[in-house]
Design goal:
The chain is an alpha/beta fold and 138 residues long. The chain has one domain: Rossmann fold, CATH 3.40.50.1010. Helices cover 57% and strands 13% of the residues. It is built from seven helices and five strands. The protein has helices at residues 7-15, 19-26, 38-52, 56-67, 75-90, 97-106, 129-137; strands at residues 2-5, 30-34, 70-73, 110-112, 126-127. A five-stranded parallel β-sheet has the order 3-2-1-4-5. α1 packs parallel to α3 (38-52). The longest helix has 16 residues, at 75-90.
Length: 138
């Protein structure tokens, strides 16, 4: 299964050694993240370091470990799907467009998110963390 993860899932895994982090590292499904959303991770770096108790080096090491399991979806690959994703979800949350476009570009991908805005569309299945846990246990 192809799974596009949203920024909040990645941030959750960075904040603490949790089930979310374990799932990102150990799930045997292919994980994806939109390259153009990396600015979101950078924007929250200081807050993650402060809230997690990590130092900058620990943050970088944790992010590197997580990114070894995640393939980036290039901006070029997303572009043909942006307009369709905008029509489906931009009215709810424009920041979610890139994640929906990433899933559409991968065909048969799902999105792992706790964001209820994704429920406004019916083109891509959305997994919650509890669903990802079930995948891990199977």
């Amino acid at each position: 299964m192809k799974i596009v993860i949203d920024t909040n899932i990645l941030l959750s895994a960075l904040l603490r050694d949790s089930m979310t982090r374990r799932l990102l590292v150990e799930l045997e499904h292919q994980l994806y993240y939109p390259e153009m959303s990396f600015h979101e991770l950078r924007k929250h770096k200081d807050a993650v370091i402060e809230r997690s108790g990590m130092n900058a080096e620990g943050y970088d090491q944790c992010l590197t470990m997580l990114l070894k399991k995640i393939d980036l979806v290039s901006d070029e690959q997303l572009k043909p799907f942006i307009k369709e994703a905008e029509k489906l979800i931009a009215h709810r949350d424009p920041d979610d467009v890139v994640f929906l476009a990433a899933a559409l570009s991968l065909s048969s991908a799902v999105i792992w998110s706790e964001d209820k805005d994704f429920e406004a569309q019916d083109k891509v299945t959305v997994l919650r963390t509890k669903d990802a846990v079930r995948l891990f246990e199977d």
